[in-house]
Fold PelB C-terminal domain-containing protein.
Amino acid sequence: MVANRPRIAPTWLVLLLACVVLITLYLVHPRGGLRSRMTSTDAPSDLSIAYLEAWLRVQPDNTDILSVLGTQYVRLGRTEDARRIADRMAAIPTDAMRRAAQLLRLTVDTRETFALPANDPGRDAALARLRVQLANAATLSWSNADLQMLADAAASVNAQQVAMQLYARLAVQDPAQQEHWNREVVRYAMYAGDYRGAADGWFRLQANATTFDAQRRCFIEGIRALQSGNLLNDALAAADQHGAAFAHDHETLVVLLNLARAAHRPDLVDRYAKALAGYAQARPDDNAALRLVDFIQQRARHDGARGQYAYMDGPQAGPRMAMRIGTRGWGDAHVVRVAASASNPGSASSMVAASSAPAASAPAAASNPGTAATNDVPGLLYQSFLESSDLPNAQRVATEQVQKNPNSPVWTKRLAQVAEWNHASPLALQMWLAYAQATHDPDGWKNVMRLAPMLNDDNAYLAALIQASNASPGDLKLIDAVVAAYERLGRPDDALAFLHSRQRNSQAEAIDSRIGLLAERAGHDDEALAYNRKLNQLYPDNTQYALRTASLLYRHGDYKGALGTLLAARHGAKDDDVLFWRNAAQLARLLQRDDIANDAYKHLLTSGHATPEDLSAMTYFYDAYPIDAGRTAELQYRRDQSPRALQEAIHYYTDAEQYERIAALLQTLTPAQLAAAEQDPGFLRVRAEYYRQTDRPFDALHDLQIAVTLPGATLDLRAALLWTLVDYGSEAQLRNAMSEWRDAPAQAPVLWGPLAAAEMRLNRPEAALKYLRLQSAAMSRDPLWQLTYAEAQEMAGRSDLAWSIRRNVWRQMQQDEAAIRDETAQGQAAQRTRASQDGEVREQMLGRRVTLASIFENADVSKAFLNDLLASDAGRNDHSAARRTLLGDAPGLPPAQTAPAKPAGTLQEQARLTSSVAKDVALAWAMSHEANPLAKRWLARQYASVLVQPSEQLIAIALADNDKPAMERLLDQQGARLPLYNRIDASVVVDRPGAAENLAFQGLEGAPYDSELHTRLQQTALTWPQSLDATVTSFVEHPLDYVEQTLAGSIKIADLYMIGVTGTQRFQHSTDSSQLTNVPSVDRGVDFFARRQTYDSAFTVTAGRREALDSFYSVSVGAEWGLNSSLSMALKAGRNQTARESQALLVGGMKDNIIGSVTYRMTQHLYATGIVEADRFYSQARNYLGSGVLSSGEIGYKIRTGYPDYTVRLIGVHGDYSASGQADGLISQLIPASAGPVTASTFVPQTYSQYGLFFGFGNDLLEQYTRAWRPFLDVGILHDSFQGWGPSVSLGLAGTVFGGDHAALFFSHQRVSRLGTPVTQIGARYSWFY
């Protein structure tokens, strides 16, 4: 049924109608959205805004409505509503809406800004804000239309940089209009001063250009854009980057060449210039240029018809002036470098004249805008090569132009200039000469005169001088220059002819004078002498002619005639005629006319124009008159401040004893002058001598020590330092100097004397004799040398030889005195010898005479000589010879005599001697006569300063007075300046035994044959030596016999401290058991000790242990005082000491004791000793047995003090004992039962007395070191109160075995002894010292 329902229309028709309806609806529906519909309407109105606001309330986030509404607000001027809409648009989180909001704000702000009046103060601030907004907007992405709108807006607010950036983005985003946008970029970049941006724009246009001309135009514009901004280096870099296609383009190369010149890039200038000219391989052709010289000179000699030449930097030349135009008026032109203007496409460089600067100055050129540059390619190349310092190619260009235009003075001048700059000075000189000869340009001749002397081209120089002299015939300087040039060329005759050709009217005298001088130089002496004599006759008051005549006569050997000529003209000479008086003085000195020389020198001084050389000659002339020589030297120093003059002034004033002048002269020196003078060893030497003469020896020593370290120090300075060190230096200083100069070569005899003295000061006489023997050939007849030689021999231990030498000297002195009195030939020779001696030698001779008289004559004679010496102060009171003057009070010099000194304030100062020799001799005389108080007074009166008092006498007095503080001070301060013997003795006295031993050892090394030194070494080394000792002694004392062995060792732990150990062992037995029994076979003991010993005192502590009948410990303490004084004392206290009063006590007993002793030495020969010992006796079990007091005394007399020291002794002994104790069982076992009851009296000795008389020698040898084997003996007779009289004998032999040891064999026998029985000892002992 359904299928049969009728249809209104067919299906296809229904479908067709539906399609039509849809198409119709599509066609009538509005397109583009709300924005396009609203913008397509006419001007906005309030109705459209109300409509949009209504829609916005319905759809608040509709972006189209917001955009359209914001635009209509702006068009209606509702700026606040537009900003509100912009804020809502910016709040929507899409980039498109944020950009739309920013554009809306920019539109609003732009309208408001331009709505402000031009004079509104807020307009500039609003524009600035708007530029900032545009700069921020330029960082976002925009469409082409938006970019164009923003670029236009930026341009409207003068934000050219932003506009340029936006147009650059347009050029990238809009390829269709890229060329347009790039031009806009260039335009605004230029407006903004962004020259790099503009250039980039041009280079982009170049890249897109299709034709070569367009590319070249864009490239050049880009280069000029950078050049407009003075970005010359960037422009050159851009040319390298973008200009490869124009490497051979003429127009481009011209632009680039000017650019390189403006950029001061000589390398690029050279490159572009070579590319422009095709001179890549160009080299200078000096030979071609030199070949032009002859051609130019030939063309200058004739007038060939030539056309006119026109030059860019010179005047026009007519047919006959082509080679004479020059560049007058252009010599002062300067070069100014100017960058080409970018706004003038046709800018190039024009030529300017090059400055005629010296060859040492750098060549320069300039470029100015012009249109003729491209037409003058040679000039441009020349300037370019100059600016690039490519002088060889510049010279090549100039050479080629001269070859093409030989009549061109401009190119001739340019070639001369560039050749000079290119160090082709010979070519430059020839070109300047050709230029000057062709143009007669004074500047050309000036350059010839400048270069010719430097190149020694006297021919060219002579041509210029003759031209100048012809121009100024009255100029004598030019005449002299011409003559000098002729002489340099070896043409004196031509010079004479030139002088003869000069005018002879008003200049006749000058020309004749020059002819005379030239004839003299040319060897025409006769002609010269004739002219000079003629002038001398015509003008007698002119001393110059007399000088010339005298000079010629001098050369011919006629000295007297020369001096006579000068003396004849002397009446017309004035003090100001310095040369006249100088020559007169020299001739007078040559002829030994000292009176004339002295008069001439007076005139020289009066003139005030004496040169330093004149004053130096005067100083030498007045050498025999120290006061005059010193004054002339001082004046020379005032004139030229020369160190040599200062040294000579001080030296001569010192010889003249004018010490106040030296002090004043030194005070005038500024610190800078003094510092400079102290760098000269010569100055330090003469000042040191001044210091020495004025009793400032340590200042003198300081100066000499500095002087020898300076450059230029001579051997004489070393000698002076050594002499001063010998007198005042320390031992260390002297040793250092000796170590450096001891090996002086045989060719340096000046050092032999001081080296010998130094060796003697260091107590090495053998070494000193080596140097003295070197002097013997030259000085063997000098008495002072002979006495020094004798002193060295005496120090070396050869006293007899020294005595004989002194005796010969004394005899010779006596013979000379007698010969002088008798006025014999020998006396005259001796008198001449004395006159030739200086002051110090005379002082030494007078002093040595006193010393020798004290040895070989009686005391009255030596005292008389001493009085003479003191009266004259060793000759120093006579100042007449040192202060005599020949000049007198000459003008210009200090006065000859200074104001008299004020009298001394005290008699002590008036009596003070100045001669050190006189002081030393007087002191030595006093000391030799044992007048120490007199010597002390002399020291106090004669020496104002303690530092300069003689150390020898001071130490001798201190030793004699036993003044230990004085000795210590002298040892510390004077050191090696003290005599060695006294140093050793003083070191011993002040408890420096180690130092004394070292001194003795070192002294013995230098003088191995000095027995006195050997004795002192023995005394210092062996008085208290450290050693290893061994002793074996056999005792026969019936009923007890024993053999005692000891072994000991000691070592010093310091100078004054020693420690040691002694071991003792006795092998004993009883020979009579009825008297003594139960004796231990061995008795052993060991003792340790420590001892402190000084020169006058000693202290000893001993502790030990003994194993005998029983075992026990022992201890003792001892002290001694006055060991080396006339009165000495000793005190000792001991406990459990060995008791030797009886045989039983020795075996089984011991004692406590106190011992005191006193020794008094009245003289070296007579002495007395007393000893008191208080004892308490005990058994070895410490049981008291008894007590006693032993008193002894001795009086002795030594017949001799040296070995054999025969001695007579008288002794006395008294022992008072009391047996007040009890014997214990331990000691009682030693007595046999058969002997009866044992009591304390059995062991304690009985009271007894002894006295006796003894004679012997060498008693100390048993323990005292002796090198030779020597016997010793002591014999006598003794009386005992119990035993009566009995003999006593002791003898032995002692000596050394290996050298550093001591051995002794001895025997003694006492018929009467304190033991009550005879005692016999036989033993040997040995000590090894180390």
User: Anything to note?
Assistant: The CA atoms of residues 1263 and 1302 lie 8 Å apart. The two ends are 164 Å apart (CA to CA).
